[in-house]
């Protein structure tokens, strides 16, 4: 190629590569296409119609992740200087490399691309793009709140000369104040916008007006007055055109030459381009890469709290609840979505209020934040009613206009008020503006560490393995769930019998090891039959039988992964049967309902005996006949006439046979040849069960009639009910339905004759009981459940819902020692993992009772333990030991199991051993005497144990500490932790929950640490302090709190810094008093400077003082109960720095 051709290509490469760097620096994600450059969208004037809808809705200019068409814009006027390259000129009045960039910064538009940032809140954390509607509206995304309500827009532009705030993991975010506030500088939004409009009108002259200029002057004038990006695009377009012409020329030229294909010539151009570098390319790449890295780092801190950003949008079908609170001469009216318990913003709520002096006023939610708040009002009784919403878009809102009576308090009661509807998640606020605590505690001095801090570790240096007898290996079927292995946590509970009025103590034990139990609960029993006290004492109330379920938390000593026995907890359950009998009462008399009876031959009648007294312990009787040839009697008192004659039927007490009653029976010769009988004389069924009996009319004369009319009576309709069908061919069907446990006599009579037939109906409760409701086994293993029935003449059967999961059979049945019950062993065999239901049946005299239990077949996974809960090992073929598992227990080729005996163990760092705290240096040696560790002084006894009188070691944490391994923290010698539960916003005053609070408090409690909490205050009066205390109480009420609850009072650069000393002291007292009235110990956290100069600490004698002073020894002269001595501590389980504290509370 010739020289000019190379030069043209070089220029084109320079232009396009330069644009590439600009695109990367400004965040452009793709090259422009013809579709991108739709000139209808590129207005040089600010077009309010494009950016805002008719009602001020912030529409398509910003889609939440960048601008439309996938082109993301990062501000061209970022953070001043980065990587040595200064970009101040990019938005000044000067020029960079001769190219003016004023237009790129003015008007919020770059060649028609509208930038709302020109009048936004600027950039925070070094220039992050802040949304134009960030503090604006939800529910329709209405652009409202950027306006400060006083006629001026509170606009901030980023000051490129300010220091860039960088966030380091483990350190608290501290804004550097790198903003220029136009409100304070005298520049308001209207002026700025007017100036922009004037600049927009400064358009270049059209060519038709340039009458005195030649063609080239007109071109030069147009180039000078066009925008920067227009110049770049125009120049690049010309260069591309030139490049195309040159390439075409080369191609045509080579077609005329036969020595070389044109394609190779063109390819050689690419080869030449490959090595070309642009002047400053490395710097541009570095700046672009550094900018991308800075943005990623700035956003990283918000990953947890912003990942599920809650943007309140307009919602239909809302039921509005009006909540009210009053603290002192104020009234807060809150409009809440009853479904979500969240405030409803961006809705023009209003209320009609009747004051104590009977005046009627209308109050409106002017800023539409869902709250109307009136202060300094007259105390007394107010009537408040919501007004209907008239706008059509609120037609689906359900609002009650019924007036609500409200008492406005005259004085603060220091009691919790309901702020649950005001508590926000951090994703609902701009945390960079709201969570702005400034740690202004200076590092005054430090003690020099005498021992270097090291991580807490435990290393086994040597170990030996000892074989154990297989009988000492715990069957996995009875193993407990701890870590990854499985146990069936069950109770062995022994039932018993007692009399009415008698009391006995229930005894139970675990089915595994040595377990210490907590308080048991007792459920699933009949409260009419027994009373169960909290200590397990059972008292009989009425006779009967009932099941009883016992549930209790148990603590078991089990080895952890390091082989140390640690406490594990689990829930144990068991069942038993309690039988209650009446206290023994002697029989005094027996009477019969008939003392004489006349029957025809074949006739049947039933005598009813009454035992006196009614509550006699043994009401059993015996029946006898003086002449069985004439009349017989069965055990139910049913008399059957045999032949003509007389006989005495005697009933006697079984307890005292001397007590009797007699009925004289006369049998007449039969004249009717018909007979009457029932298909069964005894029937047993359960409550709500149905059964059928056949009533049959016969005739001894083959040619005789079987017609007649049947009648029936039932002597106890509480026990059962009966209905009789139509007589057909001498047979009628009687349907019996059981109601409740008891006995009833059914008597059927053939009308116009002396023929009767009797059936004894017994309704019995389900007496079948199982000793467990759940059985856990493994594939190939067996388990058993014991079934007990209340009689001895029936048979058991069992079936499973899924034979692919488990099979079942009855392996054994036997009578109880007293002969009152029958038990069966239900044997279950696991087939494969899963769950199945086993049904056990007991059938006696045609009556079937059923009970079910669940079988869980678990995989053969988990660590195999011995009976002392020590991990077992097996020897492999390569003579190495590995941990034994459940599968090894069933492997018949493994004959021997081993226990590992730990030899020498090397500890480092803080260690809790046998309840005492030690510190081991890097060499594994215990430290003794007076030592300084991480800037704190400790005293250790001669055996290395920490002397507790020197103070207790603890930390405090918040979201800034990230995710925490609380077990590692506990093992590092930390005794307590103070956890931030929330904060009040430095800017808006919103109540915000710390996004890590729940995870932190749950983890700390689970690790066994003492737990306190703190709340970062921005209260400006006592009422707000009560609200902060109320939020704290609401957040901690369901957790175990074993350390004080503190109010964090320190600098923020926000609203809380502006109150005077007296007000701040009142705020602290109001918070602490409210917390203490809720049953907690309260206190205040502040540094030495604030306690001395900004708080009247002398008024806080009732509360704990938590002093922050980073010094070798505190020099604060006032009282303090805790001392935060360092903010750059290191603790195992926490990444980055953490605050370290010494407590002198004594617990």
Span between N and C termini?
88 Å
Task: Provide the structure class.
Answer: alpha+beta
**Count of alpha and pi helical runs:** 17
Oligomer: single chain
Strand order within the widest beta sheet:
64-65-67-68-69-70-71-72
Strand content: 25-35%
Overview of the structural elements:
This protein is α+β, with helices and mostly antiparallel strands and 1147 residues long. 16% of the residues lie in helices and 34% in strands. The chain has 17 helices and 72 strands. The strands form 21 sheets. Strands 64-65-67-68-69-70-71-72 form an 8-stranded mixed beta barrel. Strands 11, 12, 13, 16 and 18 form a 5-stranded mixed β-sheet that branches. It is elongated and about 150 Å long. The two termini are 88 Å apart. Mean pLDDT is 77; it is low at 1-202, 257-313 and 479-488.
Short recap of the structure:
The chain is an alpha+beta fold and 1147 residues long.
Please give a handful of descriptors for the protein shown.
1147 residues; alpha+beta; 8-stranded mixed beta barrel; 5-stranded mixed beta sheet; elongated; disordered N terminus
Give the arrangement of secondary structure elements:
Blueprint: H1 3-25, H2 48-51, E1 81-82, E2 85-86, E3 95-96, E4 99-100, H3 102-105, E5 109-110, E6 113-114, E7 123-124, E8 128-129, E9 156-158, E10 179-181, H4 182-185, H5 189-200, H6 215-225, H7 228-255, H8 262-274, H9 281-300, H10 303-306, E11 319-325, E12 330-337, E13 342-343, E14 350-354, E15 360-364, E16 371-375, E17 380-386, E18 398-399, E19 404-408, E20 423-425, H11 431-434, E21 457-460, E22 463-468, E23 491-493, E24 496-499, E25 503-505, E26 508-510, E27 515-523, E28 530-532, E29 537-540, E30 544-559, E31 565-581, E32 589-592, E33 596-600, E34 604-606, E35 609-612, E36 621-625, E37 631-633, E38 638-641, E39 645-653, E40 660-668, E41 674-678, E42 682-685, E43 690-699, E44 710-714, E45 720-724, E46 731-738, E47 742-750, E48 756-763, E49 769-770, E50 774-777, E51 782-789, E52 795-800, E53 806-815, E54 822-830, E55 834-844, E56 847-857, E57 872-875, E58 881-883, H12 886-889, E59 897-902, E60 905-913, E61 916-920, E62 929-933, E63 936-940, E64 952-957, H13 966-971, E65 976-984, E66 991-993, H14 997-1006, ...
Parallel strand pairs: 11-18, 20-66, 24-31, 33-40, 42-48, 50-56, 64-65, 65-67, 67-68, 68-69, 69-70, 70-71
Antiparallel strand pairs: 1-2, 3-4, 5-6, 7-8, 9-10, 11-12, 12-13, 12-16, 14-15, 14-17, 17-19, 21-60, 22-59, 23-26, 25-29, 27-30, 28-29, 30-31, 32-35, 34-38, 36-39, 37-38, 39-40, 41-43, 43-46, 44-47, 45-46, 47-48, 49-51, 51-54, 52-55, 53-54, 55-56, 57-58, 57-59, 60-61, 62-63, 64-72, 65-66, 71-72
């Amino acid at each position: 190629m010739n020289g000019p051709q190379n030069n043209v290509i070089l220029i084109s490469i320079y232009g396009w590569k330069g644009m590439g760097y600009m695109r990367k620096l400004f965040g452009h994600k793709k090259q422009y296409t013809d579709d991108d450059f739709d000139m209808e969208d590129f207005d040089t004037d600010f077009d309010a119609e494009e950016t805002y809808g008719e009602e001020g809705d912030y529409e398509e200019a910003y889609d939440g992740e960048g601008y439309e068409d996938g082109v993301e814009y990062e501000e061209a006027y970022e953070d001043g200087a980065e990587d040595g390259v200064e970009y101040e000129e990019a938005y000044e009045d000067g020029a960079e490399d001769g190219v003016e960039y004023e237009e790129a910064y003015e008007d919020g538009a770059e060649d028609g691309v509208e930038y709302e940032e020109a009048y936004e809140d600027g950039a925070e954390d070094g220039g992050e793009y802040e949304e134009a509607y960030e503090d604006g509206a939800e529910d329709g995304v209405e652009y409202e709140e950027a306006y400060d309500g006083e006629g001026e827009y509170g606009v901030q532009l980023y000051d490129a000369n300010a220091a860039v705030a960088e966030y380091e993991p483990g350190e608290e975010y501290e804004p550097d104040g790198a903003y220029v506030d136009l409100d304070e500088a005298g520049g308001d939004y209207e002026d700025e916008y007017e100036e922009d409009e004037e600049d927009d009108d400064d358009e270049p002259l059209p060519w038709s007006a340039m009458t005195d200029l030649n063609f080239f002057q007109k071109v030069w004038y147009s180039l000078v007055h066009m925008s920067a990006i227009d110049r770049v695009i125009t120049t690049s377009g010309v260069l591309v055109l030139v490049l195309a012409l040159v390439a075409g020329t080369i191609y045509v030229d080579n077609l005329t030459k036969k020595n070389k294909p044109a394609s190779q010539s063109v390819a050689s151009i690419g080869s030449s381009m490959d090595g070309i570098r642009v002047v400053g390319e490395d710097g541009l790449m570095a700046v672009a890469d550094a900018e991308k890295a800075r943005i990623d780092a700035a956003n990283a801190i918000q990953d947890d709290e912003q990942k599920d950003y809650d943007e309140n949008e307009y919602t239909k079908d809302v039921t509005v609840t009006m909540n009210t609170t009053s603290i002192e001469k104020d009234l807060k009216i809150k409009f809440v979505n009853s479904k979500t318990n969240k405030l409803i913003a961006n809705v023009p709520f209003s209320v009609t209020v009747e004051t104590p002096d009977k005046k009627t006023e209308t109050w409106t939610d002017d800023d539409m934040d869902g709250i109307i708040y009136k202060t300094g009002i007259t105390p007394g009784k107010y009537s408040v009613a919501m007004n209907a919403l008239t706008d059509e878009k609120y037609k689906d809102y359900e609002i009650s206009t019924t007036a609500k009576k409200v008492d406005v308090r005259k004085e603060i009661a220091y009691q919790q008020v309901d702020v649950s509807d005001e508590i926000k998640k951090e994703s609902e606020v701009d945390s960079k503006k709201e969570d702005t605590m400034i740690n202004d505690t200076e590092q005054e001095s430090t003690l020099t560490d005498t021992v270097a801090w090291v991580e807490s570790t435990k290393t086994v240096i040597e170990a030996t393995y000892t074989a154990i007898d297989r009988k000492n290996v715990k069957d996995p079927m009875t193993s407990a769930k701890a870590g990854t292995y499985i146990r069936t946590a069950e109770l062995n509970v022994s039932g018993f019998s007692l009399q009415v009025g008698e009391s006995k103590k229930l005894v139970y034990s675990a089915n595994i090891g040595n377990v210490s139990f907590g308080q048991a609960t007792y459920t699933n029993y009949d409260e009419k039959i027994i009373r169960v006290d909290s200590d397990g004492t059972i008292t009989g109330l009425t006779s009967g039988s009932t099941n009883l379920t016992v549930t209790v938390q148990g603590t078991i000593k089990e080895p952890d992964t390091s082989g140390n026995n640690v406490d594990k907890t689990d829930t144990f359950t068991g069942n038993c049967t309690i039988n209650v009998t009446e206290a023994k009462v002697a029989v005094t008399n027996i009477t019969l309902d008939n003392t004489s009876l006349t029957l025809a031959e074949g006739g049947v009648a039933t005598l009813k005996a009454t035992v006196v007294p009614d509550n006699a312990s043994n009401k059993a009787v015996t029946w006898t006949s003086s002449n069985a040839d004439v009349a017989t009697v069965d055990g139910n008192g049913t008399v059957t006439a045999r032949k003509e004659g007389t006989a005495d039927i005697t009933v006697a007490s079984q307890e005292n046979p001397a007590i009797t009653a007699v009925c004289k029976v006369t049998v007449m010769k039969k004249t009717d040849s018909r007979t009457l009988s029932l298909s069964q004389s005894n029937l047993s069924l359960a409550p709500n069960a149905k059964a059928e009996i056949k009533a049959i009319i016969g005739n001894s004369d083959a040619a005789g009639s079987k017609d007649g009319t049947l009648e029936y009576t039932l002597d106890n309709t509480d026990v059962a009910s009966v209905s009789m069908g139509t007589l057909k061919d001498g047979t009628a069907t009687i349907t019996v339905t059981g109601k409740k446990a008891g006995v009833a006599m059914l008597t059927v009579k053939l009308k116009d004759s002396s023929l009767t037939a009797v059936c004894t109906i017994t309704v019995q409760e389900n007496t079948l009981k199982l000793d467990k409701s759940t059985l856990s086994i493994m594939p190939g293993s067996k388990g058993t459940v014991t079934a007990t029935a209340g009689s001895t003449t029936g048979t058991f059967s069992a079936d499973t819902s899924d034979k692919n999961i488990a099979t079942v059979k009855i392996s054994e049945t036997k009578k109880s020692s007293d002969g009152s019950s029958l038990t069966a062993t239900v044997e279950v065999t696991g087939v494969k993992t899963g769950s199945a239901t086993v049904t056990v049946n007991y059938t006696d005299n045609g009556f079937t009772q059923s009970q079910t239990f669940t079988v869980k077949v678990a995989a053969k996974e988990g660590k195999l333990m011995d009976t002392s809960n020590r991990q077992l090992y097996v020897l492999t073929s390569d003579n190495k030991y590995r941990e034994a598992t459940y599968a090894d227990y069933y492997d018949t080729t493994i004959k021997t199991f081993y226990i590992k005996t730990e030899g020498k163990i090397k500890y480092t760092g803080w260690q809790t051993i046998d309840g005492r705290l030690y510190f081991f240096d890097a060499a594994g040696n215990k430290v003794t005497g007076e030592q300084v560790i991480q800037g704190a002084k400790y005293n250790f006894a001669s055996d290395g144990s920490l002397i507790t009188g020197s103070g207790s070691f603890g930390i405090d944490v918040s979201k800034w500490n990230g995710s925490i391994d609380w077990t590692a923290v506990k093992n590092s010698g930390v005794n307590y932790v103070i956890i931030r539960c929330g904060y009040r916003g430095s800017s808006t005053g919103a109540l915000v929950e710390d996004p890590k609070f729940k995870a932190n408090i749950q983890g700390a409690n689970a690790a066994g640490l003492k737990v306190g909490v703190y709340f970062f205050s921005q209260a400006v009066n006592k009422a707000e302090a009560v609200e902060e205390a109320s939020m704290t109480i609401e957040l901690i009420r369901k957790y175990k709190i074993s350390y004080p609850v503190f109010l964090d009072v320190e600098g923020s650069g926000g609203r809380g810094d502006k109150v005077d000393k007296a007000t701040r002291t009142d705020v602290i007292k109001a918070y602490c008093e409210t917390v203490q009235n809720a049953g907690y110990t309260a206190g205040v956290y502040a540094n030495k400077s604030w306690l001395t100069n900004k708080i009247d600490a002398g008024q806080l004698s009732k509360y704990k003082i938590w002093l922050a002073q980073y010094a070798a020894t505190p020099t604060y002269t006032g009282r303090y109960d805790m001392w935060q001595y360092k903010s750059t501590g290191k603790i195992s389980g926490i990444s980055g720095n953490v605050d370290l504290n010494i407590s002198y509370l004594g617990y």
